[in-house]
User: Fold this.
Amino acid sequence: MKTYFFLGKGGVGKTTASAAWSVGLARSGMKTLVASIDPAHNLGDAFAADLGDRITHVADNLDAVEVNIDDMIRAYLDELSVKMKHTYSYMSAMNIDGYFDILKDSPGIEEYATMEAIKKFVALAQYDAVVFDTPPTGMTIRVLAMPRVSLLWTEQLVKMRKRILATRGMVENVQGRLEAQVDGETVVLSSDEKEDPIMQELVAYREELKTLKDMFSSDQSYVSIVTMAEDLALLETKRIIESLGKFRIRVHAIYLNKFFAMANPPDEIKGKMEEQERVVARMKAEIPGIAVKDIPLLRNSPRGIEALFTVYSKYLV
Assistant:
């Protein structure tokens, strides 16, 4: 499966670019899903279709969905709560539900839920490609960085659990197996890593993170930046590329949306066009190896499959 991420500030045209790209992939014969993981959805507007949090068929080879992030957070925490209650069943005094009531409003939970949404969609075997219309830049960078960052502390948790199990093993050697009472039943607390549910959960989570990290930095994952030909946008684009580079995520293309292209422009537009030329020249000089393409300011915002395919075929490829 190939994955495509379109990054940029709100309002620069990520939705149009991701929708158009998905139409192009579908018309090339690839079974494609385009997913909006931006809380402020416009994907349905781009397709001139009613979309929601259920996958909807919008054209041949093309499905679309607008992820309800609040629902994803609830589902993520519900699943986590069930796992915790199972894993820590011998610690009946823990008020797990109380902890999760607090967690739902904690910093970073939206990013984790978004990462879970990405993981869910790339696991769908019926698609050849998944295109993501992403949240504004800052949050998207945190989401893409999360598997690599989370691996660091997961590795530490695995080491900590190993020490706990080793200590438990020494106690077993002295006084025999350790037991706990849960709802009137006796539960054996094993020191064997393969029998310890907490260790098994940590190991499984570590493997999920490794898979996601490798996917984000693989040749099958394409990250594009949608922005405008402005001096400030150039600086932001360079920061995005630098930030993603720290996590070995490569940017493949930069799309300059709403590009002024006209002969004999009025004086009010000349300064803007001079800025555009300057920015494009600097981008090509200062950001080598990344394609820079412009999408002209169109008379009307493209809506519907045919209009989006025109954008794809003329300006994106």
